[in-house]
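Subject: design request, 205 residues
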């Protein structure tokens, strides 16, 4: 990437954070694994990886990261959530397990509801060529227990749909993908996120 490298954090409490780190570093970003609030200092962007959203939510509470992440975004930091990470971004989570009383905490940074396991369970996982707004060719998207977005607010833009359901959104400095770009050999969505981070950083300067 041109200019100074961007400093990107990847939430490293659980899930596919190593794959995100490798892909971002291959594009020239300086990547830091985030486990504590202090790890957010000096970052330009933050990735919330795929994994298990209820486990990630519990660990966000355990490591006192909910408010620091919200503060990071409010201060101009760009945030991208993939699959479980996208669930954590939504204003409402639907389909939480019964042991959680049907309720699941979220960051509320994305004006959309999210339905867990919208395309089925683990056995229903699949890969598909996904048309994405802004990309000339379809993206080879990997869906694993993927969520889908609904009740999308006016400030959010749907960038991709699959089977009539929204699976990729952008709202300002927030990006959300229901699928796993880090499990594809295609780096275009990671590059898109870095462009978004650079744009946000310029706007905040």
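Subject: RE: design request

Done. Sequence follows.
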């Amino acid at each position: 990437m041109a200019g100074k490298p961007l400093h990107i954090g990847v939430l490293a409490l659980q899930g596919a954070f190593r794959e995100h780190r490798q892909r971002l570093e291959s594009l020239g970003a300086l990547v830091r694994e985030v486990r504590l609030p202090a790890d957010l200092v000096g970052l330009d962007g933050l990735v919330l990886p795929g994994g298990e959203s209820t486990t990630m939510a519990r660990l966000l509470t355990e490591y006192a990261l909910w408010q620091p992440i919200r503060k990071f975004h409010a201060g101009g930091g760009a945030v991208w959530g993939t699959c479980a990470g996208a669930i954590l971004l939504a204003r409402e989570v639907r389909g939480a397990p019964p042991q959680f009383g049907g309720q699941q905490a979220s960051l509320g940074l994305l004006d959309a509801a999210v339905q867990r396991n919208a395309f089925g369970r683990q056995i229903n996982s699949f890969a598909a060529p996904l048309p994405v707004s802004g990309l000339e060719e379809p993206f080879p998207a990997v869906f694993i227990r993927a969520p889908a977005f609904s009740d999308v607010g006016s400030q959010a833009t749907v960038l991709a749909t699959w089977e009539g359901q929204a699976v990729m959104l952008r709202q300002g400095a927030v990006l959300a993908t229901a699928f796993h770009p880090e499990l594809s050999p295609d780096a275009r969505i990671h590059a898109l996120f870095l462009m978004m981070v650079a744009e946000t950083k310029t706007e905040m300067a």
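DSSP finds five helices and twelve strands in the chain.
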